[in-house]
Recover the amino acids of this structure.
């Protein structure tokens, strides 16, 4: 049995299944078509975090002080919102480390 701190595969698989169950099938299919059609274009800018809470799915981009969304990130945010998915930007107020 793997130490839970080192077992990234099992939780990753479970999280992926949780995300896929909550992602509307039509927009998930559209996203996969976009990726397959032009991976070079869509490979950048996807939000940093994917959150699952109950039946809700939300994507979050984390930005440090003075940082802003890139054009790639804005395009992903627009696409996710247009496809009925929740997207947020988390602005970090100060650096802790």
């Amino acid at each position: 049995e793997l130490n839970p701190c080192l077992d990234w595969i099992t939780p990753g698989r479970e999280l992926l299944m949780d995300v896929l169950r909550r992602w509307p099938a039509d927009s998930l299919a559209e996203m996969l078509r976009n990726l397959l059609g032009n991976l070079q274009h869509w490979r950048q800018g996807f939000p940093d975090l994917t959150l699952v809470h109950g039946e809700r799915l939300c994507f979050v981009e984390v930005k440090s002080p003075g940082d802003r969304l890139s054009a790639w990130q804005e395009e992903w945010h627009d696409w996710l919102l247009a496809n009925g998915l929740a997207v947020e930007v988390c602005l970090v107020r100060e650096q802790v480390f």
